[in-house]
């Protein structure tokens, strides 16, 4: 039974890479590992220039519960420790020359671990929310004592356009995700796990459901969710799956729920079962400017420039040809299917639709913007020297046709932004208050509850950058303690 939350929009999904198997991106000759890959304070550097490190060597240790341990993604020599930009912040990066020996030091495997051992391992392995939030998982799994947790939600919604990394891991690592979910549930002491997946990923729903049945796993159910952005936002997902509402300024634990992303569950499995700390992740590399689009295992600290040197850009002629060839392939695939193979036909038709849309956008191959994450909530840059971190679910190289370059005009009071806001806010009033610098007024209209989903900006016919206003007003309200 597909479930839904109030508000939301239907951006074009552009999930071109959904059928491509995950592959390993060739590690670069040099990595720049940031000590800030989480919400809290930067981790404390534990190595010195000249040190030899292996894959899995601790480079920096967590500074407080909202911080996380940082591990080396390659083997080689520490060459520098320098300040660089990561997701709009300045932070130290540990520069390592890769010797390509791939020698590694993992933590010991835990078999039959206790609740305490799992919690300790999750913290030790530096695991954070991998859907983009970067909230340390160990802190999330340690809610206030008065919060009685009865449900663990595993977030497989992946509602942002372009991104298919979670979709692919659900298809390629179903058993590991389920085991990871069980470890998390043990750490929490709950036996009710719900995996929520949007119904445009029916193959992932089927794969996980079959794996649960085949392995006679009890306590986990997979729920199909209506495809609607931002279905994967924590509060919207909880509402869709449990009909419980997280009160303003409270955490989901207040209503008995903890949410973890599917990639986080996979990383928990690797940390507990293999002793593998978090030094790599699956990233969808896509956008009109990319030739070899796909989902790749990428080491943290890999620059965008190095990602693009492997994935390549193409000229408009070649780009068009690649897309046309893929389109032809899909059309042939479709023609071979029988009428009764409805699910497969639906899926291929969706790919064909996405490829046709892609054809319209590939005329120019030059990217004008790089986005870390999805186009709705990701961080934009033009700096190719920034790097992949634990929270980078996607890296998009977008062309002019894919980016809104229209200048904003006056609000026409159409009310569309309010209609699509999943938090039931009045974005146009918050925007006006922000322009006037009236932070008390912005707070009165609930800007602090904004989840920065971008639905309002997406729908606005005047192309107003409402999300920037929301971000600014939130920042000012918190800064001034209003
Ligand atoms: S006001 Fe915030 S929560 Fe509402 S649509 Fe805009 S970005 Fe999303
Ligand atoms: S959608 Fe844009 S134009 Fe319409 S009310 Fe909101 S801010 Fe104004």
Q: CATH superfamily of the largest domain, called what? A: NADH-ubiquinone oxidoreductase 51kDa subunit
The N- and C-terminal alpha carbons lie at a distance of 43 Å
The percent of residues in helical segments reads 25-40%
Uncertain regions spanning at least 5 consecutive residues: none
Main beta-sheet annotation = 6 strands, mixed
Class of the largest domain in CATH?
A: Alpha Beta
Say what oligomer this is. Answer: single chain
Average pLDDT for all residues: 92
Which strand order do you get reading across the main beta sheet? Answer: 1-14-13-17-15-16
Number of helices: 15
Write out the distinct hetero groups bound to the structure.
Answer: iron/sulfur cluster
Number of domains: 4
Strand content: 15-25%
CATH architecture title of the largest domain? 3-Layer(aba) Sandwich
Task: Tally the beta strands.
Answer: 17
Overall structural class, as computed from helix and strand content, comes to alpha/beta
Here the CATH topology of the largest domain equals Rossmann fold
Q: Which radius of gyration do the C-alpha atoms yield?
A: 22 Å
The shape, in one word, is globular
């Amino acid at each position: 039974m597909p479930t839904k939350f109030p508000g939301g929009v239907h951006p074009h999904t552009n999930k071109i890479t959904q059928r491509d198997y995950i592959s390993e991106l060739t590690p670069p000759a040099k990595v720049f590992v940031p000590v800030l890959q989480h919400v809290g304070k930067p981790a404390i550097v534990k190595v010195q220039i000249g040190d030899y490190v292996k894959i899995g060597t601790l480079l920096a240790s967590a500074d407080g519960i909202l911080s996380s341990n940082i591990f080396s993604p390659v083997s080689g020599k520490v060459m520098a420790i320098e300040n660089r930009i990561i997701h709009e912040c300045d932070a130290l990066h540990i520069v390592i020359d890769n010797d390509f020996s791939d020698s590694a030091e993992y933590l010991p495997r835990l078999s039959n671990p206790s609740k305490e051992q799992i919690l300790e391992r999750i913290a030790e392995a530096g695991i954070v929310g991998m859907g983009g939030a970067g909230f340390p998982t160990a802190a999330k799994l340690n809610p206030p004592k008065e919060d009685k947790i009865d449900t663990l939600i595993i977030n497989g919604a992946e509602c942002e356009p372009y991104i298919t990394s979670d979709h692919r891991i659900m298809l390629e690592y179903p058993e590991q995700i389920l085991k990871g979910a069980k470890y998390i549930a043990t750490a929490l002491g709950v036996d009710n796990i719900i995996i929520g997946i949007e119904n445009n990923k029916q193959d992932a729903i089927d794969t996980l459901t079959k794996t649960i049945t085949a392995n006679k796993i009890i306590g986990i159910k997979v729920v199909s969710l209506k495809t609607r952005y931002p279905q994967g936002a924590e509060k919207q997902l909880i509402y869709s799956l449990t009909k419980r509402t997280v009160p303003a300024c409270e955490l989901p634990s207040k209503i008995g729920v903890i949410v973890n992303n599917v990639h986080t569950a996979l990383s928990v499995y690797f940390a507990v079962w293999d002793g593998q700390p978090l030094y790599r992740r699956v990233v969808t590399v896509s956008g009109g400017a990319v030739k070899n689009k796909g989902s790749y295992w990428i080491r943290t600290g890999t620059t965008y420039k190095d990602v693009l040197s492997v994935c390549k850009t193409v000229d408009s002629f070649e780009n068009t040809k690649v897309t046309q060839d893929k389109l032809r392939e899909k059309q042939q695939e479709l023609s071979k299917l029988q009428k009764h193979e409805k699910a497969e036909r639906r899926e291929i038709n969706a790919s064909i639709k996405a490829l046709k849309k892609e054809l319209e956008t590939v005329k120019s191959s030059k990217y004008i913007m790089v986005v870390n994450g999805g186009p709705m909530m990701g961080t934009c840059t033009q700096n190719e020297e920034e790097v992949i971190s634990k929270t980078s679910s996607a890296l998009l190289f977008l062309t002019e046709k894919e980016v809104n370059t229209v200048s904003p005009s006056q609000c026409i009071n159409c009310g569309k932004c309010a209609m699509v806001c999943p938090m039931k806010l009045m974005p146009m009033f918050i925007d006006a208050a922000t322009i006037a610098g009236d932070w008390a007024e912005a707070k009165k209209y609930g800007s602090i509850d904004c989840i920065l989903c971008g639905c309002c900006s997406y729908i606005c016919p005047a192309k107003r950058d409402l999300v920037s206003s929301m971000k600014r007003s939130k920042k000012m309200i918190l800064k001034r303690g209003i």
